[in-house]
Structure formats: structure tokens, C-alpha cells
Amino acid sequence: MRLQQLLSADEVAQARRWLAEGEWIDGRSTAGPQAAAVKHNEQLAEGPQAQHLRELVLQALERQPLFLSAALPRRVLPPAFNRYRGDRNAYGAHVDQAIRTHPGGALRADLSCTLFLSPPESYDGGELIVGLGPAGGDGPGAGQPFKLPAGDALLYPASTLHRVAPVTRGERLASFFWIESLVPRSDERQLLFEMDMALMRLRQREIDSAGQESPEAVALTGTYHNLLRLWART
Length: 234
Ligand code: NI
Known about the structure:
alpha+beta; Jelly Rolls; 2 domains; eight-stranded antiparallel β-sheet; five-stranded antiparallel β-sheet; 6 helices; 17 strands; 35% helix; binds nickel (II) ion
């Protein structure tokens, strides 16, 4: 799912200034053994810039209702930042690790998120290709490419096989992070999301026309919460 304008143009510009000031290290330092073999990028080192950037991204997520409804986040791993360019310009097919450890403990990665920070016209290649079949390559199983405007993010199940195509011109900056959801199963999460979106539109239409919610909308909202109660793990 695409989260449009998670960051405003001003916030993207500020983020890019911090990224330009920071120090960059080999991206393999945070990958598991399988991913490290195919990971060729750089990652922003720990420092004041990384701290500011993380706060910026986490604050943006909290004010984004679509993210909250789709991800039902229990915990968000601190966002990290990567750069693809030159000869460190690609990330081959991999599945993100299920369990991510960080100073606060272990987190189950249910959802992966990539926030694009470079304007798409400023680099060639660099597509995030999601949903690769076991065979990869072209044809069936080739996956779906995403190259979103700076400030937009892609949220996708962490169980998905994905890769980043080589950047052949310019540089691609992005933030990436994982989310542990209150609802671990993606099919259940998807049903709740669809119901929540439909309910939001229904309530809005009723409030616009009659000024109050119908008993049916109240009942369906109750069903939403009762399904969430059934499926959520806190
Ligand atoms: Ni990945």
C-alpha cells in the first residue's frame, strides 16, 4: 500500500540536508547472512542526524490515519536510512528477517516500509520490486516495481520476497523500517483495514447528509472493534 506524502516537501528537504551531513557505512552491517550476500548499499551511521531523521519519520507516521488503520502498529522499529549509488547500488532478492532485535528488545517484523526520499527523476533504476515469485527474473514472478515520489512510502507484508534494482545514474535515498502489528496475520489485517475504510466513508456520508450516525453504522463499528479484539495480540 502506498502512503502518499507521508513527508511534506519541506520535510523531505530537511531530511535530505541531514542525510547529506551524516556519515555512511556499509549496509551489510544490519543484514542477516542470506541478505548480506546480496546487499550492496550504504546505511546512515548512528549520530545526531540519524536521531533527528528518526523522529521526523516516526512523527509523520503518527499523524497518518491510513498508516494506523492499515498497519495497526504495536511497535515500530526505529527507522534507518540507506543510499544506493556507484558500485553499492542494489539489493538482490531477499525476505526480511522475521525477528529484529534492537535496544528495546525483539520485534516481530510483520510489515516492511520504505519511504522514498529522492525525486524519481533524479536517478535511473532503483525500483523497489515487491512480490517476486520463487523463480524471480522476468515473466511470472517478476514482481511489481515501485519508484515513488520523494515523501511517499510503500507499506508491504514483511513476508514478501523483494529486491532493489541497480541504480545506474544518480543516487537513491530512502528510509526503511519494520512494524510489529497488533494483528500478525496479513489477511485478518487486510479485512480490518477494508472494513475501517468503508466505515469511515459511511460515517462521513451520514454525518454530511443527516448529521448523525445511523444505528447500523454504530453496530458495524462495534463489529470492527470486536473483530479487532478477537485477532489482536497485545
Ligand atoms: Ni528488505
